[in-house]
Design brief:
Elements lengths: L13 E5 L9 H9 L3 E4 L7 H13 L2 E6 L1 H4 L2 H12 L4 E5 L10 H4 L4 E2 L5 H12 L21 H9 L6 H16 L4 H15 L6 H17 L48 H33 L1
Parallel strand pairs: 1-2, 1-3, 3-4, 4-5
Helix pairs in contact: 7-9, 8-9, 8-10, 9-10
């Protein structure tokens, strides 16, 4: 009996995975292992932020049996991850720290340093076995305290404000330029590694917009190329492609003018006014042509008669 509850060996455990967004790719092996063990795993995959997003996270923490903490330098610097751990501890949820990226152990927060860490930086059968053993040894979650502790406030996210703007169906030219400038600044001066990953993700969303102006689209593509291929820090200098003030900005994507209209939508044909000759001028032109033709026929007949006389 655990905390007054009978163990439920057949019930899959529910685990909340707390991680930094910059480590998302490093979680593949860990998540696969958890799902292979038939555990229920909840992991935040949204970038939006906001109260509804945070309420969903807190509800998932309350419902979990334990919190799996994906430890890395990025996670140590994440305000959202710190608030998640603090709330889980106030609820009595055990923490299971799993190292997914090289980390400076001297900088570990006390709540993580006090627990034995599992090294999973190079996933293999041995590290997977250690993770499985640690999770299977956990007791069931204790009953939630009554009353519940006060929920932590929504973490302030610089990226969530930009993501909110990108949900608008149409962005003006000024809005597009401001967003690109903000994302360029995050790439050049990230507050933490998650900032860089978030900026790349938002640039990818922006690149797919159909209302993106052509020159701004070129700048977005250039930023994505530099960030994804070189991994170097993008400079915060002015964009390479400058808008020309004498030309009106055009949408990045325009349908060719010779595209056929959609089925069932035939464009109306507008009669065009033509500049032509008057009726009198047309009659005079026709009569002149008839007179010319008459003289041509007379000449041809005279030639034929002359040839006949010569032959006789």
């Amino acid at each position: 009996m655990v905390n007054g509850q009978q163990p439920e060996p057949d019930r899959p455990r529910r685990f909340f995975v707390s991680y930094a967004r910059a480590d998302r790719e490093n979680l593949a092996g860990l998540l696969f292992g958890l799902e292979t063990m038939h555990h229920q795993v909840w992991i935040d995959s949204k970038l939006d932020g906001g109260q509804a997003w945070w309420d969903e996270i807190l509800a998932s923490i309350r419902a979990c049996d334990a919190m799996v903490v994906a430890v890395s330098n990025s996670l140590i610097n994440s305000e959202a991850a710190r608030l998640e751990r603090a709330y889980a501890q106030r609820l009595g949820k055990p923490l299971v720290p799993v190292v997914v990226a090289p980390v400076n152990y001297d900088f570990l927060p006390p709540e993580i340093a006090a627990v034995q860490l599992i090294d999973h930086t190079h996933p293999d059968s041995a590290s997977s076995f250690r993770v499985a053993s640690a999770l299977n040894a956990l007791p069931l979650a204790p009953p939630l305290p009554n009353p519940l502790p006060a929920p932590p406030p929504v973490p302030v996210s610089y990226m969530s404000g930009i993501a909110q703007k990108l949900r608008k169906p149409v962005l003006s030219e000024d809005e597009q330029r401001v967003i690109v400038g903000q994302l360029r600044d995050r790439l050049a001066r990230p507050r933490d590694p998650a900032d860089r990953a978030g900026a790349i993700e938002l640039l990818g969303q922006m690149s797919g917009r159909t209302d993106l102006l052509h020159m701004i689209g070129q700048e977005v593509d250039q930023l994505l190329y530099e960030a994804q291929t070189t991994g170097a820090r993008v400079t915060a200098s002015a964009p390479r492609v400058q808008a020309q003030p004498t030309f009106q900005a055009q949408p990045r994507f325009q349908a060719p003018p010779n595209l056929a209209p959609p089925p069932g939508k035939v464009p109306a044909i507008v009669p065009q006014r033509r500049s032509g000759m008057s009726a009198g001028a047309v009659i005079a032109l026709v009569l002149g042509a008839i007179v010319v033709l008459f003289f041509v026929l007379v000449i041809i007949e005279a030639i034929i008669q002359g040839q006949a006389v010569t032959g006789t």
